[in-house]
Design a protein that fits this description.
By secondary structure, this protein is mainly alpha-helical. It is built from nine helices and no strands. The relative contact order is 0.11.
């Protein structure tokens, strides 16, 4: 059982929340969504059931919060990659590569993936990602590294859909090759 008490109430609440999210995701991955109960989550997390209900009304709400945290981490990771410098085109390539690797490495075809990849929170995450990529593509288009005959919003959608294929590829090397093909579609026409 994790030690959940920390120095401040805010830190304690964050620790309880994070432990709850991690425990629930692990339980669903191990036992399946239908067999995971709030009582089981509370026991595995090391908190009382009443405390758990103060944070979340049900298992689905916990999984939604877990997915939102994962999305925030991925967007933060992409922002870190973007901020490492280079030309606009180099930053775009680095971010697309990072996104392809994230897509390749996340769990697919599992009950957990099916549970979290639905609902309004997924649409919000998709909008955030598309806006992030659209800005990068617009920057690269302004420097002549990306085509300007297609709007950046459409190119961002193209990139996201093309790189979703990384989820079914056998290796990170294959995901990187997919990025190369995707970038070829972004190059200005000759």
């Amino acid at each position: 059982m994790p030690k959940l008490w920390t120095d401040t109430i805010e830190e304690h609440r964050r620790a309880v929340r994070d432990a709850t999210l991690d425990t629930t995701a692990a339980l669903v991955a191990e036992h399946g969504l239908a067999s995971v109960t709030m009582s089981q989550i509370a026991a595995e997390t090391g908190i009382g059931r009443a405390t758990l209900y103060k944070y979340f009304p049900d298992v689905e709400a916990i999984l939604t919060a877990w997915h939102q945290r994962q999305v925030a981490r991925h967007l933060s990771q992409l922002a870190t990659v973007r901020d490492q410098g280079g030309s606009a085109g180099e930053r775009l390539k680095s971010v697309l590569t990072a996104y392809a690797i994230i897509t390749h490495n996340r769990p697919h075809g599992t009950e957990l993936a099916a549970a979290v990849h639905r609902g309004e929170h997924l649409a919000g995450a998709q909008r955030q990602l598309l806006g992030f990529l659209q800005d990068l593509i617009a920057d690269a288009a302004n420097t002549g590294e990306v085509r300007v005959d297609v709007p950046p919003a459409e190119l961002a959608t193209y990139c996201v859909h093309a790189l979703q294929a990384a989820s079914s590829l056998p290796s990170e090397a294959a995901a990187r090759r997919l990025v190369t093909v995707t970038l070829a579609g972004l190059r200005p026409p000759r």
